[in-house]
Amino acid sequence: MTIHFEATLTERNFDVSLDLARGETLAVLGPNGAGKSTLLSIMAGLLRPDSGRAFIGERTLFDLSAARPCWVAPHARGTALLAQEPLLFPHLSVLENVAFGPRSKGAGAAKSRVAARRWLEATDTQTLAARKPGELSGGQAQRVAVARALAAGPDLLLLDEPMAALDIHAAPLMRRLLKHVLADRSAIIITHDILDALMLADKIVILENGRITEAGPTRHVLGRPRSRFAAGLAGLNLVTGTAHGEGIDTAFGRIFGTRETELVPGETAAAAFPASAVSVYLDPPHGSPRNMLEATVTDLEPHGDAIRVRAGELAADITPAALADLGLVPGTRAYFVLKATAVTIYAA
Amino acid sequence: MPVLELRSRPMFRRGGAGYSAVPPWIYALACVGALFVLLPLLAMVAKVKWSQFIPLVTSESSLSALGLSLRTSAASTALCIVLGVPLALVLARGSFPGQRVLRAFVLLPLVLPPVVGGIALLYTFGRQGLLGRSLEIAGIQIAFSTTAVILAQTFVALPFLVVSLEGALRTAGGKYEAVAATLGARPTTVLRRVSLPLVLPGLASGAVLSFARSLGEFGATLTFAGSLQGVTRTLPLEIYLQRETDADAAVALSLVLVAVAVIVVALSYGSTRSKKARPGAAG
Smallest CA–CA separation between B159 and chain A, in Å? Predict the structure, then answer.
């Protein structure tokens, strides 16, 4: 059972074709105006392309290339959409909002409420059931919106930057919830945040100017970026290792940081941190910083106004002046120092 | 004295609400505008003979005219809702050729003299009219009946409901409806459970405006329905007739109409304000 999608829409310079195995989560990244939302709108049936077709398994969502074009209405597609804004119906209580999907599919009022309560529990929002959407915080509302989308029992979940409108406190909670609910669910998630893609998605596509410029398993694409956009994203360091108490043990040494998820000691975990947060020294700096990784410089490359210093998996952005000071060349043994606050650690 | 007040008001604003983009002299013109509306009303109230007020407004012809006005206005408001809601939905959400032209024509009664509307209705539903001839054969006669009053009122009041509701629909936007559809709701379910509840305040204020316009309808009614006591003589027609014979009665009835209008406006203002206040207080 796979999901296949191909569509063109000349008006928006959109020409995309992609496949997704059942249970897989696909992250779509790309600059603004690349056609990410167009992709979801066409998939959900809210926007009609010029040509193309899409299937979920044997079920047709649309097939405009057939002799008799077929266009299934949004309500019959089984593709629930979760947008940047929660868009909870303001006149209905939280419980009625979540019960909306089952009710619309023909379940009775009582049965729909039972299902709604189950999903409110699953998203840890059962205490909000009686409230009106206007009485919720942004994070709470978005969790309820997740519950509402899941209660509709979609075959494919479409998420359009679900964390973009949340504040920095609500976003990690939401990310954890999504990691849990997306685990064995077919989903397409649009995101600007590389961490979302790393944590939530099995596969990734980079969309630029209405075309897919890169596609593949998440780590593969970000590890060896070919497109400019992916290369820009790959400014994020991603080091894997073994979970150990507050941090992880890597080939370069122990790394401490903020834990995004609960860590089980001994299991595989990853640390993510921006290259711009790493500084490079030739000798161990004073004050014994918590995160000091010893590595051999392998590459130097210009990156915008900075110089990117690579040491295998590690990357650091330093100024040209600093490079001149340090006299780094490939083969130099150096110390990479990074603040623990800039590091996010999560279970891989 | 008013000039003194005008000068002190901006000072007060500066102290209270900070900056205001309204230059002080605008207040003077606004004041003239307000007086232009209020002064005639005051002049009329001053003319009311209070000793005879109750007997005048409770005379048989007055009560029958008032009753007829309220009944026909209620009926035409209902008709406006039945016809206007689909029109507003189609104009706000649909996209089809001729949409702009349709909107222009639906709004035409707003700018058309009501007498012209009455004549148009007469040539549609009258005995010799476009549909009237067939209706006559079927044994239905509309012109110069209470039905004609309702049709005349609906004709002039419909644009008020359509404009008000279309605006509300456009403001609400289609996002909630799109989400509802992806959750599995059929178009009719979306309309019933999402679109209409969301624009309920707009629908209510549109209905109130239609009711008020129906209540005041004169020209189209007189042309198309005539002036038969108890059948087609609504309050405005009664007032116009009384003015010729008994000016005091006309003034008293006018005051009744003003009172009804004020009550209607107050009701709608109160209801829309409480509706608007709710989400604000919640957030």
Answer: 27
Neighbour-count burial for B85-118, b at 16+ CB within 10 Å, e otherwise:
bebbbbbbeeeeeeeeeebeebbebeebebeebb
- Chain A contacts of B186, Cβ < 8 Å? 75, 104
Helices marked H in chain B — which ranges?
Answer: 2-16, 24-47, 50-57, 60-93, 99-106, 108-111, 114-125, 132-137, 146-172, 175-182, 187-190, 196-198, 200-216, 219-225, 235-245, 247-282
Rounded distance between C-alpha atoms, residue B123 and residue B120, angstroms: 5
The answer to whether the Cβ–Cβ distance between B282 and A134 falls below 8 Å is yes
ipTM of the complex, rounded to two decimals = 0.76
**Chain-centre distance for alpha carbon A284:** 36
Q: Where are the alpha helices (DSSP H) in B114-186?
A: 114-125, 132-137, 146-172, 175-182
Helices A94-104 and A109-122: angle between axes, nearest 10 degrees: 120
| Chain-chain contact of B182 with A83 (C-beta, under 8 angstroms) | no
B187 touches chain A (CB under 8 A): yes
Report chain A's mean pLDDT, rounded to a whole number: 88
Residue A288 has pLDDT above 70, yes or no: no
What residues of B are in contact with residue A75 (Cβ under 8 Å)? 181-187, 189-190
- pLDDT of residue A302 exceeding 90: no
Residue B178: its chain A contacts at CB < 8 A? 44, 46, 74, 81
Which residue in the set A76, A79, A100 is minimally distant from B180, CB to CB?
A100
Nearest CA to B208 out of B121, B125, B275 is that of: B275
Angstrom distance (rounded) from CA A132 to CA A215 = 41
Contact B181/A75, CB-based, under 8 Å?
Answer: yes
Sequence-distant (≥ 6) Cβ neighbours of residue A238 within 8 angstroms: A198, A219, A222, A223, A270, A271, A272, A313
Domain assignments of chain A as residue spans, ordered by start:
2-233, 236-347
Could you tell me the domains of chain B?
52-275 (1.10.3720.10)
User: Distance of CA B29 to CAs B6, B22, B38, B40, Å?
Assistant: 11, 12, 14, 18
- Distance separating alpha carbons of residues A222 and A233, to the nearest angstrom: 7
| pLDDT score, position A173 | 84
Fold entry, domain A236-347: OB fold (Dihydrolipoamide Acetyltransferase, E2P) (2.40.50)
Q: How far apart (Å, rounded) are the C-alpha atoms in residues B6 and A219? A: 71
Label residue B206 by pLDDT band (50, 70, 90): very high
Six-digit token string for A322: 């600093």
Is the Cα torsion angle A143, A145, A146, A150 positive or negative in sign?
A: positive
A2-233: CATH number:
3.40.50.300
Does A240 have pLDDT greater than 90? no
Distance between CA A79 and CA A228 in Å, rounded?
A: 31
